[in-house]
What we know:
2 copies of one chain form a homodimer.
Chain A: E1 5-8, H1 17-35, H2 41-50, H3 59-69, H4 75-87, E2 91-94, E3 99-102, E4 113-117, E5 123-127, H5 129-141, E6 145-156, H6 158-163
Parallel strand pairs in A: 4-6
Antiparallel strand pairs in A: 1-5, 2-3, 4-5
Helix pairs in contact in A: 2-4, 3-4
Chain B binds a DNA duplex (30 and 30 nucleotides) through helix 4.
Amino acid sequence: MNKNKVISPFKPASHQHQKCLKSAIDAAKKHCELSGLRLTPIRQRVLELVWQNHEPVKAYDILDNLKKGKSSSAPPTVYRALDFLQDEGLVHKIESLNAYVGCNNPKELHNSQFFICDDCGAVAELDDVDIRELLQKKAHRFGFRIADEMVEIKGQCKECHESGV
Amino acid sequence: MNKNKVISPFKPASHQHQKCLKSAIDAAKKHCELSGLRLTPIRQRVLELVWQNHEPVKAYDILDNLKKGKSSSAPPTVYRALDFLQDEGLVHKIESLNAYVGCNNPKELHNSQFFICDDCGAVAELDDVDIRELLQKKAHRFGFRIADEMVEIKGQCKECHESGV
DNA sequence: AATGTAATGTTATAATATAACATTTATGGA
DNA sequence: TCCATAAATGTTATATTATAACATTACATT
């Protein structure tokens, strides 16, 4: 059995994003219920905004959107919600972009590998055992104990280089 | 023949850092000469400051140090020098820390994998073919063309967990 | 209701990075 | 040598990303 997971593939140009969004929110609700945590209106709204599409979203863009609905939002409003969501594995930060993507696999905290299309901005997320094991093996050679892994691969997704010039 | 390289290992507590620094600067000089590029005083000074030690250095710390020597330095002074040095592979940015480390292997541009000790801050840099090939293989499966790879692994280096509490 | 904790509101500011334009310095050709 | 050009640096301002600190409100339990 292959335990490698494609947590989130590149999405075809048109997919039912409403369903996609709904299932992410439902998963988050369930996760929080099971963990005895509160997915407050602000947190849920931020999560929805992160899930606007399959591209990394900027904190201040989330803030702008929050302000449209409700007046009293400031940077801490967003960053606190993002911190909560990150702690619960509902959102990941893409360090090389200072931006955030939703994750629909909150059950277990995991290390992810991100593939980011420079053209369309879409992100695919893997949780790949082979990669983890190889990094582990390499680290082991010089006695390094891994606590956290960041793997962010930039390039061109299939759609983009097939349709590209 | 194993083409995997340890570009920069974790340094033992005491090593001859002056030599280390000098050889990095010499390599940079040579590289620029061969490429017909100018390692101007500012660029060299910034490179020296990046090489202060084997920890990632912050842009504004470099700026503070620059100011000590010479009055007229502003953020662009540092960022321009860092851009130049990054383009030449003399410096890498650690995205997850917003900080910069020196690289003594400018000859060929390469992808690097960084192992960063959370305790002592030291960074080791690999240019590991196995990792590159595995990422390549994984990407290939869904038609992704890799342009750039960021691999930043956080944890505890051998020294630190052996001497640790 | 009283209490303690978690969440949010609010203001200010820190930290990181770039834009835009002026000036100076190097470089190669007339 | 001198000029024209490009490259590098100076300078001011501002954009972007993120956190500190403290006040207030909402929630959960007794």
